[in-house]
Amino acid sequence: MLAIINSIALQGLEGIIVKVEVDVSSGMPAFDLVGLPDTAVRESRERVRTAIKNSGFEFPVKRITVNLAPADIRKEGPVYDLPIAIGILLASGQLCVNDNLSHVFMGELSLDGSIKQIRGILPAALAAKKYKYVSMVVPDANAAEAAIVQDIDVYPAGNLRELVELLNKGELKKYTVDMENLLTLEEKNFPDFADVKGQAVAKRALEIAAAGGHNVFMLGSPGSGKTMLARCLPGILPNLTFDEAVEVTQIYSLAGLIKPNQSLITSKPFRAPHHSASTASIVGGGRLPRPGEISLAHNGVLFLDEILEFKRETLEALRQPLEDGIVSITRVQSAITYPAKVMLVASANPCPCGFYLDKEKECSCTPNQIQRYLNRLSGPLLDRIDMYIEISRVEFDELAGAEAAESSSKIKARVENARKIQLDRFCKEEKVKCNDHMTAPLVRKYCKATAQAKALLKTAFEQLKLSARSHSKILKLARTIADMDGKEVIDANHMAEALQYRSMSFLRM
Question: Which residues of the chain register pLDDT less than 50?
Fold first, then answer.
C-alpha cells in the first residue's frame, strides 16, 4: 500500500514542499530510504523503527520503501522522522483516516516515541502558507512559534501514540496564540546610559547612529568606556515591529536558538562575537550552511569588540553584507541568501599597547607598529562605516560626580521620534525603514540641502578626497541629524556635524 505525507525542506529561509512517499509491500524485509537524504535523514530508519515499536504499534516485517520527493533536492536533518512514521502506519493500516491526511508533518522522534523540538519551524510554516496548505502537525515545543503564522492551523503533538489516536478519532486540538500580546518586550538587562559618566560626544554620536541606523567605529585607550557605550546602545533602539520580529525569529529558528514554547523574538538582537570567531561563524556558511552572527544581528546590532584583533579575511567578508544587507552563500547544488541588515558597532585600541591617543599614559609602540596595527582595517571596509568617534579618558571629577547622566529611556524617546519621521517619509518605499537604508535615488530625493551646506560638503569632498560612497553616507548622516532637529532641509550645521563624524585622521599617522 502507498501513503503520501506532506513535509517541508528548507534551503536557507526558503521552504520547499517534500512529498514523503511510503510504500509497504510484500517481499524480503527491508527499509530503503531514497531521495538524496543526508546522514541524519538516513539514520531516521532506526529512530522510526524503534519509536513505532515503543509506542505500541507493529513495525511491518515487509519491504518498506520511502522516497523523499523531489529527489534532486538534498534533505537534511531529523525533521522527516514524524512524516515517515505516519506514512508507515498509514500504509500498513494501523492509522485509519477518512480524509487524505493533507496536514504538513514535521518532527524528530525519540526512541520512546516522543516528538522533539526541531529547528526552522517558523520559515517552514510560512512556506506551508505560501503553498496554500492550511494545517501543520508540529512538536509541542514548536507550536507557539508556528502559530504566529496566520491562516495556518497548528496542531501540537507530544508523542507518536497520542498523535495516532487523535488522528484516528479526527480530534486534533488546534493551538492558539495570544496575538495581541506577542510583542510584549522581553526583559533584557542592557546597561543604561545614565550609568556612563562623561563621554557626552560619544553619547550624542550613538544617539544619531541609533536614530538613522548608521555604522559606528570607536577608537580609544583601554578602559575609556567603548564596550560599555556599545552595550548601552540596544537600550535606545526602537522596538521591533511585528514584521521585523518575524524576520528575526525566522533566523533564530533556523539556527536552533528558539527556546521551547517561545513564539517571537521581541527585542532588538545584540550580537557580540569573540575576535577568535571563524569567518563562517560571522557571515554564515559551513558544511551545512547556517546563519552567521551578522544574520543573527539582523534588525539589531553587531558589535565587534577589538575589531583589529579579528582575522583580516573575516573582516573583508563583511564588506558585501554591509553594503547589500544580505549574505549570499553559494554551493554547487544551491545558493542560499540570509538577511543581514545590521548596525555595525566596532571598537578598537589605537595601537598594540593601547595608549597611542591617551593624554596621560605614554605609548610604548613605534610608529611602524602603530601604522601596521591600524592597517588591519582596509580602506574599503572603513568606507562602509558612517561615523568615527575618538573615545577619550574620563576624568576623575566626572567619575566621582554625584549628578546622574541622562537615562536611556529619555534618549530612546528622541530616537523613536526621529525614526517615526523616517517611517512616514519612506512609507511608500519597500524595505526602507531608516536613513541608512536609502538607495541612491532616495538620497537624491530626500537629502535636500541648503546652498551653504552643499558648499561645505563640496569643500570637504575635495580636501579629504572622499569617495562616492562617503559622499552618500555623509548626506544620509546629515539627513538623520536634520530629522533629530525637526528640519525638512539639511542646514550647514547639520552638514558640519556629519562631516565631523567622518574624520579618520586618528586612524592614520
Answer: 509
Domains 2-177 and 438-509 share a fold: no
Local structure of 131: helix, strand or coil: coil
**What are 323-368's pLDDT values in tens digits?**
999 998 887 667 889 999 999 999 999 899 988 888 888 888 998 9
How many secondary structure helices (H) and strands (E) does the chain include? 21, 16
User: How far does the chain reach from its first CA to its final CA, in angstroms?
Assistant: 78
Residues 337, 495: Cα–Cα separation, whole Å: 36
pLDDT of residue 463: 87
The CATH architecture of the domain made up of 438-509 is: Orthogonal Bundle (1.10)
Residue 30's identity, in one-letter code, is: A
Radius of gyration of the chain (CA): 27
Three-state DSSP state, 431: coil
Helix (H, G, I), strand (E, B) or coil at 339: strand
With beta carbons less than 8 A apart as the criterion, state whether 90 and 102 touch. no
Domain boundaries, the chain: 2-177, 193-427, 438-509
Q: Report the C-alpha gap between 185 and 265 in whole angstroms.
A: 9
Q: How far apart are CA 385 and CA 39, in angstroms?
A: 43
Class for the domain spanning 193-427 = alpha beta
Cα–Cα distance for residue pair 389/255, rounded to 1 Å: 34
Grid cell digits, residue 74 = 538534498
Instruction: Determine the longest span between alpha carbons in the chain, in angstroms.
Output: 88
Closest CA to 167 of 177, 175, 157: 157
- The CATH number given to 2-177 is 3.30.230.10
pTM: 0.90
Which residues, at least 6 apart from 426, have a Cβ–Cβ distance to it below 8 Å?
432, 433, 438, 442
Handedness of CA 393, 397, 398, 400 (dihedral sign): positive
Residue among 301, 398, 303, 305 at smallest CA distance from 340: 301
Say which amino acid occupies 247: E
| DSSP per-residue codes, 244-309 | HHHHHHHHHHHTT-PPTT-----S--EE---TT--HHHHH-BTTTTB--HHHHTTTSEEEETTGGG
CA 34, chain centre distance (Å)? 34
C-alpha 7/C-alpha 391 separation (Å) is 53
Strands (E), 409-502: none
- Residue-wise pLDDT tens digits, 400-417: 776 778 899 999 999 999
